[in-house]
Design brief:
By secondary structure, the chain is mainly β. Helix content is 11%, strand content 38%. The protein has seven helices and 94 strands. The strands form 24 sheets. Strands 56, 58, 59, 61, 62 and 70 form a six-stranded mixed sheet that branches. Strands 3, 4, 6, 7 and 8 form a five-stranded antiparallel sheet that branches. The radius of gyration is 48 Å and the shape is flat. The N terminus and C terminus are likely disordered.
Length: 1340
């Protein structure tokens, strides 16, 4: 390759980099440092002379590694293999000498190999700071007027960065950042901003020690018009051939530059002009010369032009494939027109159409025709036009590139139009009083549609728009329907009939509820009437009967009236519901067996049909078996469910016998699922046909069209009838894609279809999907739809969907993933319902999905509600949530939250604590998603978490991520520094200094007073902030503070923590500590603790056990410090000690004094009293009472109730009690007194009772048993007497049964008529027994 490359190329490259940044072009290349590049920096423990001891640190940006590599001058290498994986390692250099000078870089080991090297660190001669790195970064486009950030990297901590401009003595700006990078901002770039900028650094404590200058030349691009870039002989060439790239501009005498975007540093070429153009000649092309090229030109002051358009150069020995598409379909009727749309990845090349079996091309398209978006047309096709077509590139120059096979399209010419599609709205099940609309659809204009009812061969309906309204009066609407059509060109030819569609009658759950409600109401009315008849009958009988037990009649009447009132109340409630209506109706969702998912997988991504496997997966964890069916009836195979609840059905290489429509079912123990969506295999060289769907379009609203493919990693294209090229295209986004129409208008109505293709060129395409007709209809406004709780739920939760509208007397339908799952019908629910509640009592893994609702009356439907994505968590591992650039953000800035999951192709949701629903949703083809919080404010502060879930299988989600706290503030919160176990540490011991604050995920840095640099740095990967100091010595003494140390560049202010004094003891003789008036005082009194030392001019420190920091410090004039403690309380009780240190040696303290225990109480706390082995005396055994108190050095006393003087004294609190003659039984308590204060006794313990065989407890137990036994005997005797009397009566009653019956009847008559026959004498009992009584009717 013969290209001029002047020595100024390196400087010009930096200049051009600025031009690219400021231009902000969408070139497909991101001009920024690779995220895998490690960071290299210097640390030294000699801040004023860092070259005396140098350590190089290498840190990986985002992951831990097992190997690190240090490179010097690209030849010498130093390896480090740490004992465990880490994110950073150190390379010790030692004192800098001439042998150590050179260029250093570092790398770390990734799973795929070594990472990109770090930036080059140049170590020069001793006594000099390394030269900083100077580069630019822009915030916004465009050209003049853009903002530019200049970054200067200084390699050391705590440097002063100075920015100079050539020609100016004073610095333009300076900074003292906390890290190693300074950011200088130049706002609103103008020509006056051009020039050479210089960055230099120096040490804060040594301002005379400067680094070498690092220059950077800035120019303003875009001051001249852009040039044109062309290729000769053409943009696609074979390796080894020559190529000329011509860059032509409108101005003479300029210098031209050529850039290949794939490698900016290695492909920057300069060329002196020939008049107003320059030629860049490639003598022998290589494969790596292929790429995207552009050019520009500039004058002697480095003022540049706009960039040329990008020119793609192909260097290949084989042409990339073209792909061919037939519109509107490869199946066409005779006499119609068809267009063959041929495209390829190479622009600026003609195309030729070939038919299999013919040598010459049928039609040609030159480059101008292709730019005009034309295609190959076949008019008025006949059977002779049927065949296999392909298209090839048509080159206008000579080349040795080989032609390869191309994508083909088989054109099928039929004599009968293809079958239409038939669907039912709103569903295929009739509801009471509702009609169903059958919709017959085709993707092209139709003269007339015909609907046929298979149960009645003579029943036909005709329609121009394809809509047929079917009612179910007297059940005459149920049955199987199909439709056909005819077109205007051939009005006598009817198409093939559609697939049959079956309409079912009202046998659903909702209608049975209606029947049940009506039955209950009728039953209540019948019950009310029956009870009224019973009351009237009882009143009529009471006129004839005079029952002695009048309370029986009153009770019967009361019970009857209670039933009447209950029936009236139920009827009132029922009729009130009928008359006035209730505003809500709650319906439990009875989920059907979830529909499985069917998809295909292959190990030949460019030719999937060579080896295809069908997979069926169920969202239900109870699935036992899967079955695959072909064409609705053909039984292919069954497979048991795996642990992932899926099964594979290998098909192998596709043949014509495999073509057809496939779907699968999942089997559970008691149910079979609905069939999956049909996967249609249409050929051996064509991808499966996708499925297209969309919600009803709404005027002025956004509409999403879903295209569901069957293979992962496919691209998607959306077509509209009448347009030859795709109106939208999407890359590989999983097995489905969503095309968006931003604002639906009348012009967007029409028939749509979609296709899928392989990801890599040359594309392999699928058949077009079935057409989807989008028609805007008048609708009610969409309802309000929400869940009462968050839509992200755990299994077993209760979920209630609320669907409401201001409209009255509406019925509601709930949809899941586009299918109806429940409804609230006004024909059986309360009239006037304006809302419906759909309830899932216990959510299962398969209940997740996209839910929505609609409402309707007899003729008009509402718009669909906004969808609610119900995510059922705890199925996949939890993700991680990170903030970029960090969790602390300035108000008004942006922050990106990245949710990293474990699987690819998932959908992610971001949640904020205190917010009922997810804030954002994102779909990702990888395993992570970024959520942008734009222009954050104080209200955005809080805990965030995320979850990911799969959209194809009932939204099965992961566990929630660990919460991440986001702070929106201009100042980091102040952390707290404390020592553990204490800030007063004996010499030789270990101590840990803890720096902790509310912000997590940010590193901390520890500073020591007087020292210029930090002593330790704790990496940001740990949230503990622990700084251990082992084997404490006099060198550890000092005053410490800490602050946050973010690992990203930030303008947020950082506050230091509190100052911690680390006192080291054991260096001076110990003092003594006394309490005045004594160690025990009452609450509210004053106390003085006196610490007596042995040396004058000392500072005394009072310490308390359990408190990490000193209580008080005092600098007295003499040898003693008095620490006054006014109005002490119980919290002041504890163990105290003191130390002191000399003013000449601060914080180098003495040994601890002896500990002094302080008690703040009126009385010592009461002790506890227990008995061993138990509180019950056994024959010949003693009991030991154990009295225990909280204080040492005490004397215990035991007291026995009933005795005036204490019984025993003990120092250990053990008292032996015997039960001679029963004298040990009774209640005991104990107390104690301090030996130092014998007059102060504690409160007595709780009473403990000892019992024995002759004790009161035993007597009570015996009396209780006697009473219980006596009662049992009395009850048993009484029962025996009653049974004996009844047994004695039984034989006589049995032998005189007939006489008894007659006597009982006579007695009943006398009792009923005694009031009416008071003056009439009655027969004697003897006469009755002789049979002289008169028979009378006896009431039953």
């Amino acid at each position: 390759m013969t290209l001029d490359r002047p020595g100024e190329g390196a400087t010009m490259l930096r200049t051009f980099t600025l031009l690219l940044f400021c231009a902000g072009l969408s070139l497909g290349v991101t001009p920024m440092v690779m995220p895998s590049q490690p960071e290299l920096w210097i640390e030294s423990n000699y801040p004023q002379a860092p070259w005396e001891n140098i350590t190089l640190w290498c840190k990986s940006p985002s992951q831990i590694s097992s190997k690190f590599l240090l490179l010097k001058d690209k030849t010498q290498m130093t390896w480090i293999r740490p004992s465990r994986k880490t994110f950073q390692v150190s390379f010790s250099i030692g004192a800098l000498t001439q042998a150590n000078t050179g260029l250093y870089r570092c790398c770390y080991w990734k799973e795929t190999g070594w990472s990109e090297p770090s930036k080059v660190l140049e170590l020069e001669a001793p006594g000099q700071l390394p030269k900083p790195i100077f580069w630019i970064q822009t915030e916004t486009s465009p050209l003049p007027g853009c903002n530019v950030n200049i970054l200067c990297h200084g390699w050391l901590q705590d440097l002063v960065f100075m920015l100079f401009k050539e020609g100016y003595a004073e610095p333009v700006d300076y900074q003292v950042p906390t890290g190693r990078v300074a950011i200088f901002s130049i706002a609103n770039m103008t020509p006056e901003s051009e020039g050479v900028y210089i960055c230099r650094t120096h040490i804060q404590m040594l301002p005379t020690l400067w680094s070498e200058p690092s220059p950077l030349k800035l120019i303003v691009a875009g001051l001249y018009p852009k040039p044109t870039l062309t290729a000769y002989p053409g943009p696609i060439m074979a390796p080894g051939e020559s190529l000329n790239l011509r860059c032509q501009g409108p101005i003479y005498g300029m210098t031209f530059a050529l850039i290949r975007l794939e490698d900016l540093e290695k492909s920057f070429y300069l060329k002196r002009p020939i008049k107003n153009e320059a030629y860049f000649f490639f003598r022998a092309l290589k494969i790596h010369d292929a790429g995207h090229y552009l050019c520009f030109y500039y004058d002697g002051s480095y003022r540049g032009s706009l960039l040329s358009d990008i020119l793609k150069i192909w260097v290949t020995d084989t042409f990339p494939k073209t792909w061919l598409l037939a519109q509107p379909s490869p199946v066409v009727q005779m006499g119609q027109n068809v267009s063959l749309w041929c495209r390829g990845p190479v622009d600026g090349v003609g195309l030729a159409l070939y038919k299999k079996g013919e040598d010459k091309p049928l039609q040609l398209l030159d480059t101008t025709s292709i730019y005009d978006d034309t295609s190959f047309f076949l008019n008025n096709v006949t059977s002779s036009d049927a065949g296999i077509y392909s298209c090839h590139y048509l080159l206008s120059w000579k080349t040795s590139i080989r032609m390869t096979s191309h994508n083909t399209v088989e054109l099928v010419v039929v004599d009968k139009p293809p079958k239409p599609s038939l669907s039912a709205w709103p569903s295929t099940v009739f509801k009471l009083g509702k009609a169903i609309t059958l919709q017959c659809r085709v993707p092209h204009p139709v003269l007339e549609f015909c609907l046929e009812w298979e149960e009645r061969a003579t029943s036909q309906k005709f329609s121009v728009d394809g809509d047929f309204i079917i009612s179910n009066v007297e059940g005459k609407g149920t049955g199987t329907y199909s439709c056909s059509y005819r077109i205007e060109a051939h009005p006598n030819i009817w198409s093939h009939r559609s697939e049959p569609l079956k309409l079912m009658g009202p046998a659903g759950f909702l209608t049975w509820n209606h029947i049940l409600n009506e039955t209950i109401r009728l039953f209540l009315i019948i019950q009310l009437v029956a009870l009224l008849f019973v009351v009237l009958w009882i009143r009529w009988k009471c006129r004839r009967l005079r029952i002695r037990e009048a309370w029986l009649l009153g009770t019967a009447q009361g019970v009857t009236m209670l039933f009447i009132l209950t029936a009236l109340l139920c009827c009132a409630i029922s009729f009130a519901g009928l008359c006035t209506g209730v505003l809500t109706e709650e319906t439990e969702i009875i989920m059907p067996t979830p529909k499985p998912e069917l998809w295909a997988e292959t190990n030949f991504p460019l030719a999937p049909w060579k080896n295809l496997t069908l997979w069926c997966r169920s969202p239900s964890g109870s699935t036992k078996e899967f079955v695959l069916l072909k064409d609705g009836t053909g039984w292919i195979a069954t497979r048991p469910a795996s642990e992932q609840v899926r099964a594979a059905f290998p098909l192998g290489a596709l043949t014509q016998t495999h073509t057809g429509s496939y779907h699968c079912h999942s089997w559970e123990e008691m149910a079979v699922s609905e069939p999956s969506e049909a996967l249609e295999l249409v050929g051996t060289d064509i991808l499966p046909k996708p499925v297209i769907s969309a919600s009803p379009p709404i005027r002025g609203k956004e509409l999403q069209i879903r295209c569901k493919g069957w293979l992962a990693g496919m691209g998607f294209a959306l077509y509209k009838e009448g347009m030859q090229e795709p109106i939208q295209q999407l890359g590989a986004v999983g097995r489905e894609a969503f095309f968006t129409i931003r604002r639906m208008e009348d012009k967007d109505e029409g028939n749509y279809s979609c296709r899928t293709h392989t990801e890599k060129r040359p594309f392999k395409w699928s058949e077009p999907s079935e057409p989807l007709e989008l028609v805007i209809k008048e609708m009610y406004p969409k309802p309000f739809f929400e869940t009462w709780t968050s839509p992200v739920v755990t299994p077993g939760s209760r979920v209630t969907f609320n669907c409401s509208t201001p409209q009255q007397h509406m019925s509601f339908i709930l949809y899941k993933d586009g299918s109806e799952v429940a409804s609230s019908d006004s024909s059986w629910a309360s009239l006037g319902a304006s809302a419906a509640h759909f309830l899932i009592i216990s959510v299962g893994i398969g209940d997740g999905g996209n839910y929505s609702c609609r409402y309707y009356d007899f003729a008009i439907w509402s718009e669909p509600s906004d969808p609610v994505e119900l995510v059922v968590t705890e199925f996949y591992p939890k993700p991680t949530l990170l903030a970029h650039p960090g969790p602390v953000v300035l108000p008004g800035k942006n922050v990106t939250l990245r949710c990293q999951g474990a699987f690819q192709g998932m959908r992610f949701a971001l949640l904020q604590e205190g917010t009922p629903g997810p804030l954002q949703f994102r779909s990702a083809s990888g395993n992570s998603a970024d959520f942008l919080l734009h222009t954050v404010g104080a209200e955005d502060s809080g805990n965030y978490s995320c979850v990911y879930f799969e959209t194809t299988m009932s939204n099965r989600g992961s566990y929630l991520s660990k919460p991440l706290m986001i702070w929106v503030t201009d100042t980091f919160p102040k952390p707290r520094l404390f020592a553990e176990p204490s800030s007063v540490v004996p010499v030789g011991q270990n101590v840990t200094l803890w720096c902790q604050g509310p912000v997590h995920g940010v590193g901390y840095i520890l500073h020591k007073e007087i020292e210029a640099t930090s002593v330790q740095l704790w990496g940001s990967t740990s949230n503990d902030g622990a700084f251990p100091i082992t084997n404490v010595s006099g060198a550890s003494i000092g005053r410490y503070s800490c602050c946050y140390h973010p690992d990203w560049t930030s303008l947020i202010k950082i506050q230091p923590s509190n100052t911690l004094e680390l006192i080291v003891t054991g260096l001076l003789p110990k003092p003594s500590l006394l309490a005045q008036p004594g160690p025990m005082v009452a609450p509210g009194e004053n106390m003085t603790l006196q610490c007596q030392g042995e040396l004058a001019d000392s500072t005394f420190v009072l310490l308390k056990k359990g408190i990490q920091e000193p209580l008080k410090q005092q600098r007295p004039n003499g040898y003693r410090a008095d620490f006054w403690m006014p109005a002490v309380s119980s919290e002041d009780s504890g163990m105290y000690s003191c130390v002191y240190y000399l003013d000449s040696a601060p914080l180098a303290a003495s040994n601890h004094s002896d500990s002094l225990e302080i008690w703040v109480t009126d009385k010592p706390p009461k002790p506890s009293l227990s008995a061993s082995p138990s509180t019950v005396f056994k024959l010949g055994k003693d009991i030991t009472l154990q009295c225990r108190g909280p204080l040492p050095g005490v004397e215990f006393v035991l007291e026995h109730d009933g005795e005036e003087a204490p019984q025993q004294f003990s120092e250990d609190g053990d008292f032996v009690i015997n039960n001679v003659e029963g004298k040990g039984i009774g209640n005991y308590s104990c107390s104690y007194r301090l030996q130092a204060y014998p007059d102060i006794w504690s409160e007595p313990s709780d009473t403990l009772e000892l019992v024995g065989a002759a004790g009161p407890a035993a007597q009570e137990c015996t009396v209780g048993n006697i009473v219980r036994s006596t009662l049992i005997v009395v009850v048993v005797v009484a029962l025996g007497v009653v049974l004996a009397i009844e047994w004695k009566k039984w034989p006589r009653l049995r032998t005189r049964g007939s006489e008894t019956d007659g006597r009982d009847q006579t007695i009943a008559l006398e009792e009923c008529n005694q009031e009416g026959d008071l003056g009439t004498s009655t027969d004697s009992p003897s006469s009755v027994s002789q049979g002289t009584s008169v028979e009378q009717p006896v009431p039953i």
